[in-house]
Design a protein that fits this description.
The complex is a heterodimer.
Chain A: H1 2-5, H2 14-20, H3 36-53, H4 55-86, H5 88-91, E1 97-100, E2 113-114, H6 116-121, E3 127-141, E4 148-155, H7 168-175, E5 180-184, H8 194-201, E6 204-208, E7 211-219, E8 230-233, H9 235-241, E9 249-250, E10 252-257, H10 263-273, E11 279-282, H11 283-297, H12 300-329, H13 331-339, H14 344-381, H15 389-411
Parallel strand pairs in A: 4-8, 5-7
Antiparallel strand pairs in A: 1-10, 1-11, 2-9, 3-4, 3-10, 5-8, 6-7
Helix pairs in contact in A: 3-14, 4-11, 4-12, 4-14, 4-15, 12-15, 14-15
Chain B: E1 4-13, E2 20-30, E3 35-39, H1 46-53, E4 61-66, E5 69-70, H2 76-83, E6 86-89, H3 101-107, H4 117-130, H5 146-158, E7 164-168, H6 176-193, E8 197-200, E9 212-217, E10 220-226
Parallel strand pairs in B: 3-8, 3-9, 6-7, 7-8
Antiparallel strand pairs in B: 1-2, 1-4, 4-5, 9-10
The chains are: A alpha+beta, B alpha/beta.
Amino acid sequence: MNVLARPRLLPRAPARTGEMAPAPPPAPAGPASPGRVARLILPARLAWRQLRAERARLFSAMAGVMFAAVLVFMQLGFRAALFDSATRLLAAMEAELFLMNPLTTASFRPEPLPRIRAHQALALPEVAQAVPVYLAQTTWRNPEDGSRRAIQMIGFDVEAGAMSFEGLSAIAPALRRVDAVGFDHRSRPEFGDVARLFAERGPFEVQVGNRMVEVVGLVSIGPSFGADGNLVMSEVNFRRIVRGRQASNTDLVALRLAPGADVAAAQRRLRALLPPDVAVLTHAELVAHERRYWETATPIGFIFAFGSIMGLIVGMVIVYQILFSDIASHLREYATLKAIGYSDGYLARVVMSAALILAVIGFLPGAALSVWLYDLVAGATFLPLRMTTERTALVFALIFGMCAAAGLLAMRKLRDADPADMF
Amino acid sequence: MDPIVISGLSYAYGEGELRRPVLRDVALTVHAGEVVLLTGPSGSGKTTLLTLIGALRAMQEGSCRVLGQELLGASERERVRLRRSIGFIFQNHNLLGFLTARQNVAMALELEAALPERERLARAGAMLAAVGLAGHEDKLPAQLSGGQRQRVAIARALVGGPGLVLADEPTAALDKASGAEVAHLLRDLAKSRGVPILMVTHDPRILDIADRVVAMEDGRIVEAEAA
C-alpha cells in the first residue's frame, strides 16, 4: 500500500519529494548532487560573509596571521642569511676542486695541510693551477678610535685568478707591494669608516696584529657569523703578519682545471694519487661542508627552526581562537543550518574556508611587511637578507598549513551544534 | 499517503537507572494538507516528538514514517536528506545575522546547487513578497522587528517547496497581534500550497488555525479533537 502510495506525494512538493522517490535503497547523492565547484564556492562565500560581518574579529585574526608570517619570514631569513654569509667567502672562490685537511670543521678555524700537496696535484695533466690559500684571524686596530677587533685574513696569489672578489682585479698589482692589504668595505662599522678614510687620504697605514700595514684598496665580500670583516693580501704579506706558522703548511688549496676537464674524474684521480691526509672536494662540496658545520655543529640552525615553529604555533592558536569563538557565537545558526538539511561536511567546509581566507589575507600584508623589515635588518646587521620566491612559497605553505590545522581543531566545536536542541 | 504515520513510538533519555522515558507508545497520523497543533504541559514530550519527526534525533523504538521514509534505523545521511524536504520554524527565528533577509531565505535553496544563483535570489524575493516583506529583502535581521524576522523564517521554511512544515512555538516570542498575524500567514501559505503543518504551541490565541488539536501528557497522546 505504502509502496504504491509514495509517488502520490509528488504533486504536493515536486522539487523535494522527487528526490525522495528512490529512497529505500539509500541512493548515493544522485541527481541532487551539487556541482563540485559550487560545493566549495558556496561554503567559502558563506565563510567570507561571516568573517566580513565582524570587522574587529577579522582584523585581529588578520593581525595574528600576519604576525606569524612575519615571524617565520624573519627566522627563515636570518637562517638563510647566516648560511649564505657563512659560506660567502668560499662561494667567491672560482676553482673547480679544493684540497682541505679532513679535520677542518669551518673555514674560520682551518686545520693546516702540507703545502706540498698543491705541487703533487699538479702531477695530473688536467690540473692547470694549484693555489694555496691561507686563512687566519687576527686583530685590526680601528684607525679612527684605536679599538681592536678580530678580523679574517685571506692570503693567496692575488694574480692567479683562483679567487675573485668584487674590486680585487683593480687592486691586485698594488697588493704585491710589501705590507699591502685590501680591506672589505662591507665589514661591520666597528672597524672604522675605512672607505671614507681611503677616499679622503688614499692609501694609509693601520695596525693589523702587531704590524703596521698599508690599506691599498677596497674589495667587497661582506661579514659572516664567523668573521665581522675581511682583509685580502698576498701570500707573502700574510706570512709577514702571521708569525710562527710553518712555511710548509697551508690552509686550503684551490685547483684550477684545464678547460674542458671532467671535474668528477679529476676528483677521483686526485683521491687515488694523494695520501689520506687531504680531502678532495668540489666547489659545491666545499660550500656544503661549511654550511653543514653551521647547521649541525652549532645550535644556530636549530634555533631558527625552533623560532619558526614557535611563530607558527602562536599564529595557529590565534586563528583557532578566532574560528572557535566564531563557531561558538553562531552555534544556534549552525544548528539551524543542520536542521534544514545542511550536512556536517558542508559546515566543515565553511570553517576550513574561513581558515584559508584568513591565511591569504594575513599572509599578503605579512609578506609586504617582511620585505620592508628585511631591508631594515639588512641595513643594521650587514647580513644578506633578501626575499626569495622559494621562501615566499615556503612561508605561504606553512601559513596555509597553520590555518588548516587551526581550522581542523576548531571544527570539533561544530559537533556542539546539535539541531535536536533547537526546539 | 499520509505525510506522517506514527505507531508504537517510544523514546527515553539516559541509560540504565537514569533512563527516563519521555514518549510511550505514541500513535499519530497527520493527513495531507492538514494543520495539526500539538499542545500539552511542558515535559509532556511534544518537543521530543517533533525532533523525532523532523529527523533531528535518531529513533529508538516503534515506527515513524515521514514523507514515505521510515525513520527507525535510518542513517544520518538519509535523515539529512529528509530534512531538506521539511520546513522548520523555530521559537527563535535563528536567522544568520550577517546575511540579508533575501540571502537567509536563499540559504534554504543553496543545497540545490543545480539552481543558478540568480534563480535562488529571485525565488527568495518572491517568497518574501508572499509573506508581506516586499521592500525589506536587503535588510539584515537586526533591522527587522520580531514579527518580521519570524516571517522571514516562514519564508525560509517554505521557499524550497517542503512536503511538511514543523513549527515549535513560532509565536512564543511575539506579541499578541503579530503572533496571530504570523500564525494565520503560515496557515494560509501552507493551505494554498497543500503543505501539512505540525505545530507545537502553548498559545491559546492561535488554536483557531488548526484543523485538529492533539494534546499530550506524560509522553502519551491523551486527547485528539477536531477544531
